[in-house]
Amino acid sequence: MPDIDNHGNFETTTLATAAVLIIGDEILSGRTQDINLTTIARFLVPLGIDLLEARVVPDVESEIVAAINALRTRYSYVFTTGGIGPTHDDITTDAIASAFGVAVEYDETAMEILAARYKPGEFNEARRRMARIPRGATLIRNRISAAPGFQIANVFVMAGVPRIMEAMLEDIRPRLEAGVPVISRSLRTNLPEGRIAAPLEAVQKAHADLRIGSYPYFAASSPGGSNGTVLVVRGRNKADVDRAAEEIIRLAAELGDAAVPEKSG
Amino acid sequence: MPDIDNHGNFETTTLATAAVLIIGDEILSGRTQDINLTTIARFLVPLGIDLLEARVVPDVESEIVAAINALRTRYSYVFTTGGIGPTHDDITTDAIASAFGVAVEYDETAMEILAARYKPGEFNEARRRMARIPRGATLIRNRISAAPGFQIANVFVMAGVPRIMEAMLEDIRPRLEAGVPVISRSLRTNLPEGRIAAPLEAVQKAHADLRIGSYPYFAASSPGGSNGTVLVVRGRNKADVDRAAEEIIRLAAELGDAAVPEKSG
C-alpha cells in the first residue's frame, strides 16, 4: 500500500486503499460521460477506504490485464466497471481471468439466476455468456438485472450501467474491511484563491495530518476570474478538522469576508 | 505508440494517440464530478487523435510524476488537468518539471499577463506562483482567466476548471498533428443486447478494421432489464463504416425491429 508522502498527510499504517478501473471505448471516445467513478468514490468515503487512483482503458484485453495487475498489487481493493454484458465487445471477464491466470467457467448459480429470468427459448448462448466467471470468483448480485458481477481476490468486477453498478455496490459493502472514515468540512468564501493562498498554506503547514484543498468556483455568467473559493479540510481526526476549519473561518474574517459551511465533500 | 491488437482494429502505423491525466483529490473524494475527460475526448475525435487511456491521481507529487512518465513515453500526446492555481495544493507545475528533470522558472510573458490583470498591490506572491513554468515549456493561453497553462514536449498542462480548460484546448489545437478522424455511426434499436449479440458478432468479425460497440440503455422508469441497445460502429473508412451500419440495420429488421440512426458518438 502506498504512503501519501507529499503533504505528509493521513496516518498510513492501517489504511485501506482502493483504485477504480473504468473499462470501455465509449468513455474514451467521449460518447458516454462516466459517473461511476464519483459514485464509487462517495460510496467509499464513509467506509474509510481511500480511493487513490482511477484509470480508464479501452475494450482491449492486453490493456485491461496490464491495468488490473498494476492496480490489484498496489491497493487493498480494485473496483472495475463495464464490459460484462453479452456482446462481443464485453471482454472484461476473460481479461480478469487472464490477469489472474485462471480459467473462465460457467457458474451454476449464475446460470440458474439468468435462466429464471428469461422465457423458454430466450436463454441463448449470448446470454449464457453472462454466467461465465473466472474460476475461484464469487458472484456479485444486484436487484436490477439478473446478470451478476463477480469478486476475485481483491478485485470487484461490476457492470457499467450506473443503476446496476450502484446495486452491485450494496452487495459488495459487507465484504469490505472498513477503516476510519475521513471527515471533511467545506467552507465557501467570496475571497479569490489568490488572496487566501498565503494564510491558507500556513494553516496546512500547522496541520500536517490534514489535507486542505482549495477550489475556485465560477458562475456561468462571470466574464472572467472566479467568484470565490471553496476550502475543504479533510482528515481522520474530527477535532483537528474542526480546529483547522475554525482557523480558516478566522483568516477569512481577517481578510474581510465570511467563510460559511457548505455541504462537505 | 501502442497497437490496439485485440479486436484487430484500426490501422496502427501512423496513429496519433493521446492520454489524459486528471490531477486532484477532489475527483477521488467524490466531491467533484469530472467532465474534462469527456470534453477532451470529444475535442480529439475530429482531429483523428485516438484517446487510449486516462488516469486520475491525487495531489501527491510522486504520483503525478510516475503517471506523467508512464503516459508521455507511451502516447503521442498527454493532456493534464488541475493543480496549476495559486494555492499550496497546486503542485502540478513542480511535479511536471520533476518528471522532465528541469527547473521551474518565472516566465516573463506569464508575469506580464498576470500583472496586467490585477490592481496595483494585488499581484502578490501566491498569484506570481501562477507564472512559474518548467524551463523549456511554452505557455498555453486562455481567454477566460489570465493564468496560463503550459506545454512541455508532448505534455499539455491545463487548468482543472472546465471553462478555462476548454479555452486552453483552443490554444492547443493548432499545435497538434491531426490524423485521419474516426467516423462513427450510432443506431438505436429496441432489441435487447442478448438477442442481437450473435449476428452482431458476425458483423464485427466481417469488419476487422472497425470497432463495433454495443450499449444497452435503460429508462429511469424501467423496473428491470434494458429498454434497448445502441450500436456504435467506428472506423477510419467511411465506406466500411456505412456498410457495417447497413448490415446492422438489416439484422435488426430480420429480428423484427428497426435500428434507427441517432446522434453518433
Task: Write a structural description.
Chain A has 265 residues and is of the alpha/beta class. The first copy, chain A, has two domains: 16-175, Molybdenum Cofactor Biosythetic Enzyme, Chain A (3-Layer(aba) Sandwich); 183-262, Alpha-Beta Plaits (2-Layer Sandwich), CATH 3.30.70. Helices cover 34% and strands 25% of the residues of chain A. Chain A has nine helices and twelve strands. The first copy, chain A, has helices at residues 25-28, 36-44, 61-72, 92-100, 108-117, 125-128, 162-172, 193-206, 238-254; strands at residues 16-23, 49-57, 77-81, 104-106, 132-134, 138-140, 149-152, 155-158, 183-189, 211-217, 228-235, 259-262. In chain A, the strands form three sheets. In chain A, strands 2-1-3-8-7-6 form a six-stranded mixed β-sheet, with helices on both faces. In chain A, strands 10-11-9-12 form a four-stranded antiparallel β-sheet, covered by helices on one side. In chain A, strand 6 and strand 7 (149-152) form a beta hairpin. In chain A, helix 3 packs across helix 4 (92-100). The longest helix of chain A is centred in the C-terminal third of the chain and has 17 residues, at 238-254. The interface between A and B is large, with 81 and 81 residues.
Task: Please give a quick description of this structure.
The structure is a homodimer of 265-residue chains. With 265 residues, the first copy, chain A, is an alpha/beta fold. In chain A, 34% of the residues lie in helices and 25% in strands.
